[in-house]
Target: Hepatocyte growth factor isoform X4
Amino acid sequence: MLLPLPLFPDRYVNTFIFLFKRGELVLCLCLDLAIGLSLAPPFPTRIGATRIWSSGFQIAAGLGPARHLLQRDQPARSASMMWGTKLLPVLLLQHVLLHLLLLPVTIPYAEGQKKRRNTLHEFKKSAKTTLTKEDPLLKIKSKKMNSADECANRCIRNKGLPFTCKAFVFDKTRKRCHWFPFNSMSSGVKKGFGHEFDLYENKDYIRNCIIGKGSSYKGTVSITKSGIKCQPWSSMIPHEHSFLPSSYRGKDLQENYCRNPRGEEGGPWCFTSNPEVRYEVCDIPQCSEVECMTCNGESYRGPMDHTESGKTCQRWDHQTPHRHKFLPERYPDKGFDDNYCRNPDGKPRPWCYTLDPDTPWEYCSIKMCDPLTRQCLGKS
Model:
């Protein structure tokens, strides 16, 4: 079995591990920190074209199958095999200990090198706004954070939070984040004003439309298309089912709200409270149809935030992954809210920058209000 090398480049010290397979000596590891190589896994490994000199014979590491590694006489091979057999337990233990000692250092380093996922595009921003709770039972979690991006990452992952995060407020003056299990649409909550605050609400919980199949929809519609009230997901009356909230974590099977936990065609649905109708889809429109556009869509201010190919739009107030000139503060009348599709430069229809580093921008698929009028065609 040959495994690729390295696993963790440029971060380990030198050691030797010899393994045996079918009576043949296989060089698993012989590395030197000075030349920037790394520790190999404890399995027979191919090590590039490095040549190592040892005991008067040459080992051509990684140049072919194990039977071709030793290129001198049989006595030297037998002696080396005997020596390797005696040292194998000690060297194997050394290998394991090195991994245990070095992994706490190398793994955080490797993770730190990865580009963190930008999750702020999943939130609707309300500048100079905060939320205050009127219900004392509602919980809040606060912590010092450097940016709204860090707050968003923690909210999406629910890291260190005793509840499902639905919104947060970033205090720009104190560099502090306040996470909430509620949003501006929740009962027992009211909006407040403050120059130092910015409110960010998870779009999945507040939008009244769906993207694609609606698998991310977490709104509060609880009536089917024909007007039947939905059955609570935690209830087995009148219909027994296997869609329990505990079995579909992250799908927000709360109350009796319409959901699409398996991403099926037709969009969000629910079991109904009518014993004669087991389940039915809900009447939730596509975001591309919530607000139509006229002419080339320069006046469009709808909530579409995905391109026609399904790519997520980049926020207008961000410069990654694509730098651009359309800053909200520079063009306050262009509707550069969050990452919604807009047409600030007179293109044929609304568009947006994408989160795909290889695709700078794409058009968005938005419904036309009416056929092109004379005004749109530039005719008098």
Remarks:
- Residues 252 and 286 are 20 Å apart (CA to CA).
